[in-house]
Amino acid sequence: MRRLALTAALLLVGSALPAFAQDAPLPGQRVFRTQCGACHTIEQGGRNGVGPNLHGIVGRPMGSIEGFRYSANVRAEAEKHTVWTEETLRIYIANPKSILPTGIMPYAGLRNPQQLDDLVAYLKTQG
Ligand code: HEC
């Protein structure tokens, strides 16, 4: 009987742990969904919406999605071959006008530092 209970307990632990480790979404995924998902997709080859697809955005040249109509501000950066880094993404997401003053992303900025950390960590996994 004891043995049976122990086995049952081990089975429970065994089935709960991997589910937690593998299936739990990163906290930044939720931030992305609520803050960015209305305008952006992130999967490879995802469609453009109000904003361009963001697959592999960390390390990607600015304004590089074919067929998306970027602002003149972004196009000028694209001509200079400016690349999105973790640092510039943080600045942009926290306050889009700070680095693209005449950009057209209609987003006020993500001011919560924890959410910003989580979101950037998530973006790094998508590409
Ligand atoms: C209401 C729509 C909207 C929301 C919400 C939004 N964006 Fe955007 N985003 C845009 C548009 C439009 C552009 C194009 C900006 C331009 O051309 O100036 C853009 C551009 C970008 C770019 C530049 C892409 C490139 O190819 O150079 C990044 C990075 C970006 N957004 C990240 C985000 C993130 C991260 C969030 C969530 C925190 C977010 N955006 C929320 C509409 C949105």
Question: Outline of this structure?
Answer:
With 127 residues, the chain is an all-alpha fold. It contains six helices and no strands. Heme C binds at residues 35-36, 38-40, 50-52, 54, 57, 62-65, 70-71, 73-74, 84, 89, 93, 100, 103-107, 110.
Explain what the structure shows.
The chain is an all-alpha fold and 127 residues long. It has a single domain (26-125), classed as Orthogonal Bundle (Cytochrome Bc1 Complex, Chain D, domain 2), CATH 1.10.760. The protein is globular. The relative contact order is 0.17. The protein contains 6 helices and no strands. Helix 2 packs across helix 6 and helix 4 packs across helix 6 (113-125). The structure holds heme C. The site of heme C has 28 residues, from helix 3 and helix 4.
